[in-house]
Amino acid sequence: MMFYTAKDAWMPCEWQKDTTNLLVGFCKSEDLIYMQKQMHLFSKNTIKEVLGQSDDKKVNKVDTYYGYVFGILYLFTKYKQDTPKISFYIVLHTLLIVCDDETCLQELQKEILQLDPGVCTLEKTLREVLEYVLFHVERQLDEVENEMTAFDEKISPFDRGIANEFREYRRLMLRMSHFMEQILDVCENLLEDENTFFHTEHLHQLKIAKDKAVRIEERVRMMEEYIEQLKEEFQFQQDYKLNQTMYVFTVVTVIFLPLTLIVGWYGMNFTSMPEVTWKYGYLFVILLSVSVVGCLLLYLKRKKLL
């Protein structure tokens, strides 16, 4: 557990409840439990949510309580398993970040402590947290865009696995769209500032984060449309392939159906058929079949069906 206060430089310090300077803390859930036992600062329900003991789903949200604001943010990943969670508490002039993912916690600490402490505000610090989450969304979105560009070049109606890939990408983009809606709700709830923790002249920091979230949401929507276009193109290729196959079968049927009739006709071998006993009957049927095929081919070619 580490706390820093913003003065001329970021100075390590202890928890201070009624500080007038910006105070930023970084800790894990076990540290939060220790703090709660010592000072009883926060609601037990929020502690349960931090520990993952509540029945709530993985939803990005912000809740306002008496004297503080509690929020949960998740880092978007391609797969739902092991999604890093960032919980945070906002008290007057204070931001406490709780995360059990060591890499995530260290990266957040590094990003925030790089800010100029002389001009850093609570709003600016909170913006850094939001933009850290948005950065991971953008990184996943960039990967999807690159994959879809390569995917566009290899689309083939003969690849049966492409339909399943389309399904996976559509599910991924649907998750990303819902995720961004939640982030926008978080930004709007923070901007409402029910506890009046923020200064009006600094609220533009949160608006910047919200505007960035809006732009990413637009990119997600455009990617959804692009995936839908690729799916339609793939479907068109499949339909065209099927039509070509049916066309070939139709032409073959048109050409050989008369031959089937001839074979069936002379295959009955009635004694009254003069061709059955005729010396040149066999040759006659061969020439008749060849003539029929030739006439049909010539007809189809003139009609530009071949």
Automatic annotation (TrEMBL):
It is a multi-pass membrane protein. InterPro entries: CorA_cytoplasmic_dom (IPR045861), CorA_TM1_TM2 (IPR045863), MgTranspt_CorA/ZnTranspt_ZntB (IPR002523). It comes from the Bacteria. GO terms for cellular component: plasma membrane. The keyword 4Fe-4S does not apply. Its main location: membrane. It catalyses: Mg(2+)(in) = Mg(2+)(out). GO terms for molecular function: cobalt ion binding; cobalt ion transmembrane transporter activity; magnesium ion binding; magnesium ion transmembrane transporter activity. It is found in: Cell membrane. Keywords: Cell membrane, Ion transport, Magnesium, Membrane, Transmembrane, Transmembrane helix, Transport. The chain crosses the membrane at residues 246-268, 280-300. Belongs to the CorA metal ion transporter (MIT) (TC 1.A.35) family. Mediates influx of magnesium ions. Alternates between open and closed states. Activated by low cytoplasmic Mg(2+) levels. Inactive when cytoplasmic Mg(2+) levels are high. This is Magnesium transporter. It comes from Amedibacterium intestinale.
